[in-house]
Structures are given as structure tokens and as C-alpha cells.
Amino acid sequence: MSIEDLPGVGWSLQERLNRKGIYDCKQLQAIPKEILQGDFGVKTGDMLWCYARGIDNRQVQNYQERKSIGAEVNWGVRFNSPSDAHHFLTSLCEEVSGRLQEAFLIGRTLTLKIKKRKEGAREPEKFMGCGSCDNLSKSITLGCATNDAQVMLRVTKQIFASFHLGGFIKCSASYH
């Protein structure tokens, strides 16, 4: 099993392990716990030693509190005019508002994520795909939590305008 598949091993820790010639659990198992703890710290060294052997002492939880509710569309969306963008953002805010209301929740932070075709990029090879894009994202935290679609739309339109996209040609958007 590759070390990148272990819980808690992100790109940074993976890079540090790779610099030491460690790419899989078999290689990791060959290293004594004390050396791992010396190289990566007591807690991380212990975690690596245990996970490489299939030992996971974390408590099993059947319920995890939801941290966010969103809606995302990342294929097939093309804005050719400002009205296309307005219509899409309106639909997205209404969807998120409905999901929040169904869960009896309100939220304070709105995040808008946009995929904008890279300058000079060709049409995507995949039908209705994104192709080569720049990912833009911005969040705004409101003073008061809400699940009102109109409030979300007003803020989302401000965020969208702040991207200064110029032309609306061939970009896709998501709201989360």
C-alpha cells in the first residue's frame, strides 16, 4: 500500500517520506518507531508506525456533524452573457437555500468557486467538460447567519463581480 493512502499523510508528509526513500508501507514497516519519532516527531512518528501496520486506535464515530452545505456544478456550464451568469447564480443560491432549510440550518460563510478557461486553452476534449481552467475562489463571512436565497444571491453576485472576469465566454461556476 502506498504511503499516500494512509490517513494523515498529506502532500507535505508524503514528500518528506519520499526524500527518505519511503514510498510504501512495506518500506515504512522496516523503520523502527524510535527513528520515525526522531525524524517526524513523537506523535507523527507513532502514527506512521501504527498505520503502516494497520493499527488505528481512533474511536469509530457513526455521526459527524455537518460543517457545510453547498451545491456544485462543474461540467456543462457556459456563460455567454451577464444574464447567463445571473440566472445560474440565482438557481444555485435557491438550491443551497433549499438544502439549508431542509436541514433546519443557517450559514454565515458563502464561498463561490469558479472555473475559468485558461488563456489560450482549447475546447475541452470531453463533451461538456471543463478542460484547462484556472480555479478562482473567494469567501465572505456575513455578520448574521442566513438560509435566505435572496441574501445569498446578493452576496454571491458581489463575489462574482470581484473576479473581474471581463468576458463571460466559456467559464463554469460552482457555489459551495
Query: What is the level 1 CATH name of the largest domain?
Result: Alpha Beta
Strand arrangement, major sheet: 2-1-3
How many domains, as an integer? Answer: 2
The N- to C-terminal Cα distance equals 33 Å
- Tally of strands: 3
Instruction: Say which CATH homologous superfamily of the largest domain is assigned.
Output: DNA polymerase, Y-family, little finger domain
Mean pLDDT: 85
Q: From the coordinates shown, what is the CATH architecture of the largest domain?
A: 2-Layer Sandwich
- Described by the principal axes of the CA atoms, the overall outline is elongated
Low-confidence stretches: 168-176
Query: Sheet with the most strands?
Result: 3 strands, antiparallel
Q: Give the H and E element order.
A: HHHHHEEHE
Structural class: alpha+beta
What Rg do the Cα atoms give? 22 Å
Helicity level: 25-40%
The CATH topology assignment of the largest domain is Dna Ligase, domain 1
Number of helices: 6
Strand content: 15-25%
